[in-house]
Design goal:
The protein is mainly alpha-helical. The protein contains five helices and two strands. The protein has one domain.
Length: 89
């Protein structure tokens, strides 16, 4: 399951995007309806550490490769439904 793609159909905060990437990688618990897994790891996402920096780099690279969209005004990310790997090669 691609948690980021599923949950970023609407604009989301960077820390939520990082959380969903972490879920996809299996390093964070999968999201539930109350986002208790997010609350459990929020401290990691809100502080400067290797995991946070790595996940931030991943979402920035996803944006740079046109997989995610970024709204400069709100500083939020969204899945780019128009992305196609075929068009990028």
């Amino acid at each position: 399951m691609n948690y980021l793609k599923e949950r970023a159909q609407e604009w989301i905060e960077p820390d939520m995007a990082m959380y969903f990437v972490g879920c996809n990688l299996g390093i964070f618990p999968p999201p539930d309806s109350e986002l208790s897994g997010y609350r459990a790891v929020k401290k990691i996402l809100w502080s400067s550490n290797d995991i946070e920096e790595t996940l931030e780099l991943v979402i920035k690279r996803l944006y740079r490769n046109n997989i995610l969209l970024f709204n400069e005004d709100t500083q939020k990310y969204k899945w780019n439904d128009n992305f196609s790997l075929v068009n990028e090669i």
